[in-house]
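Deviation from plan, reported transparently: 4'-deoxy-4'-aminopyridoxal-5'-phosphate complex.
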Amino acid sequence: RQRSTSFSTSSALRGYCCIGRLVDMVVVRGSGSYVWNDKNEKFLDFATGIGVTGTGHCHPKVVKAIQDQAANMIHAQVNISYHDRMLELMGKMLPIMPSVGGAGGGGASPLDSFFFWNSGAEAVEAAVKLARHATQRPNVIVFRGGYHGRTMGTMAMTTSKYIYRAGFGPLMPSVNVAPFPYCAHCRLPKESGAECCLAPLEDLELMLKQECHPSEVAAMVIEPVQGEGGYVPAPASYLRGLRALCDKHGILLVADEVQSGVARTGRMWAVEHAGIVPDVLVFAKGIASGMPLSGFATRAELSATQPAGSMGGTYAGNIISCAAACATLDVIQEEGLVANAKARGDQLSSGLKDIAAKLQSLNGGKAIVRDVRGPGLMVGLELTAAPGSGAATRLSKACLKRGMILLTTSTFETVRFIPALNISAKEMDEGLGIFSDAMHEVFG
Ligand code: PMP
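Because the crystal trials were delayed, the predicted structure below was used instead.
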């Protein structure tokens, strides 16, 4: 049955227009991989609140942890005292942080010191503060197409779309933007045999010679898989090159795993695919299944450089959010969700490639899909349609009409698949079926 595609909203919401949204629909309930709107229409949720409800909507163990904690204590302030749920969470995170030569329970991770905040942007800004103070250097290098948030500082670090920056300047100074290896748009001739991801690395080295002297660079901040920039994974050799470059110049490597972390890519952290350990790893979104919580892990010797009182915040590391995060990590472990993200991710990627191949043959051999990419359940499908043509939005709306929430991303025409980490094979097939029908409607 087709879902409604237009919804009437109250005039009180008019001032809310600066929040871009996929559809003016009112959702009222969520369970597992599904959400319901106020007309009791059911939707398969392939957006999970932008990669947040990794354990599915309202996982019973997460709900119980939140309810129990709310009955016991709702607010404890980190600048006043420790609280037990935060200590418990640190204990659970320590063994799953990345370590050299294989991570997630491998050797002990050097990332043994944790700070918590509310949002991803807040944690990224705090990571920049830590890097500046620890190195006593001013500059930050970020990567084209990256997204780090909408706050004053992170806005200057974000280049995925101009809408996040234009008109809000002057921006935070001392931010340099380096190229990001976007393989689907690689300009190197394939026959050259050159490893293309090394070209942006060479550009970066040139940047350190021409634009910003390494002795003035505090940190490089990179998403191991770009999220808002189009679900573009950085090749492992590129990330290894960055690690070596940072080591050479005493620059801190900050991995923004706000979207790619917490089992999303079929490993606990996306940096594990490259076998590198950043100096700071920022997490948020999936860590607490929907309760607001962010944070970073770093080495104790780096956190020790920060003056007491320079970090914190009224709600930073809220006790209920920490309880939800503890339950989330338990569910991920008990239900094998790292492995499920990999298995369902393989099912998803190969299903999407089949759909693309079928449409291409129906389309006289002309490709409609440029690229299907991304590890685990962080998969982007980029269309060949011209950027700005609106093809990805049409596709997303065609999915919505059929009862599936699917988001677009990037300035290139791309849709992104971020279902719950505990999605079943049957639910994945349902999603692939809906997506195939939507593709035929829009491009068939
Ligand atoms: N970094 C990355 C990689 C993100 O994807 C996001 C959110 N999309 C942020 C930072 C900002 O997080 P928040 O919206 O919680 O501030």
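The first helix runs from residue 48 to 51. We consider this an acceptable substitute for the interim report.
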